[in-house]
Amino acid sequence: xxxxxxxxxxxxxxxxxxxxxxxxxxxxxxxxxxxxxxxxxxxxxxxxxxxxxxxxxxxxxxxxxxxxxxxxxxxxxxxxxxxxxxxxxxxxxxxxxxxxxxxxxxx
Length: 107
Description:
- The protein has 107 residues and is mostly helical.
- It has one domain (3-106): Multidrug-efflux Transporter Regulator, Chain: A, Domain 2, CATH 1.10.1660.
- It has helices spanning 3-7, 21-28, 32-41, 58-74, 78-106; strands spanning 18-20, 55-57.
- It has a two-stranded antiparallel ribbon.
- The longest helix has 29 residues, at 78-106.
- The two termini are 29 Å apart.
């Protein structure tokens, strides 16, 4: 496992779960201002019209934790974090597709 994969490690969550902003902040031990910054930078996407009504999918918890590590440990800015996380997810999707294609070719 490389260092980027370790950054994205986390507890398994129900992928269908959604967290209201208060729960989201409490789970991460952060304040709302930081979450608003993540949304503004495109790191996470909320559901809802305004910050006080926002809710987030469980996958946003993983992205927020990875963001904290990239910012604190590596000094990456939020725009860079959004790009890094998107590229990592794209790489994972491509790896899954490649694995699927390889299985189909083995038949």
